[in-house]
Design a protein that fits this description.
193 residues, two-stranded antiparallel sheet, alpha+beta, globular, 8 strands, single chain
């Protein structure tokens, strides 16, 4: 078991580096705009929900996602009715992704370490749910922040492992890694579990 902000457990199945950033259509709901977003997501690829998946593209039991004002940051997507996912990045380093998520979860923008939503802490003005704003601080802003933090950590890790590398060499190494994790970008896959 791994633990990070809010002491939420996340299981890692694949220690060899298979974390991914994915998107999927938003689940239909009781409100018209969820249904509209679902339609546009399925048929046009707009308004997709972003998440970080820690497994090997076979299960969504271990994720990190900014699920909205009522839920905050959650650690599974298994209850999603939408099972088709669009790959943004895949085969990212698990440990660095885990650290990136932990660091982002601590940012004030995403609740400052309080990952709960308004349904769990109705009076809170500082938890993740209270900070959630559609289009300005939503699930895709969360995954973008995780990716930027991942990039920073990856470059730091490369420098630690290659102390003689200069900035140009570090950037070239990152570019190569970026190309690798982007190879399947835009591919749609079905994850049943």
């Amino acid at each position: 078991m791994y633990h990070y902000a809010g002491n939420n457990p996340v299981r890692y199945i694949d220690p060899d580096g298979r974390a991914s950033i994915l998107q999927r259509p938003i689940n239909k709901g009781t409100k018209w705009y969820y249904n509209a977003a679902n339609f546009f997501g399925k048929y046009f690829g707009w308004f997709l929900h972003g998440l970080v998946d820690y497994e090997d593209l076979t299960s969504t039991k271990s994720v990190s996602q900014y699920s909205g004002e009522n839920s905050g940051i959650t650690t599974t997507d298994i209850d999603s009715k939408e099972r088709n996912y669009k790959i943004i990045y895949t085969e990212m380093d698990d440990e660095l992704t885990k650290k990136a998520v932990a660091n982002v979860n601590k940012m004030e923008t995403f609740g400052g370490g309080n990952t709960k939503g308004l349904s769990q802490e109705k009076d809170s003005k500082t938890n993740a749910g209270a900070k959630y704003k559609v289009f300005t601080n939503d699930c895709n802003d969360y995954t973008a922040a995780v990716f930027e933090e991942y990039k920073k950590l990856w470059m730091e890790d490369y420098k630690t492992k290659n102390p003689k590398a200069n900035k140009k060499q570090i950037k070239a190494a990152w570019k190569k890694h970026y190309e690798k994790i982007s190879e399947r970008k835009g591919e749609w896959i079905e994850i049943k579990n």
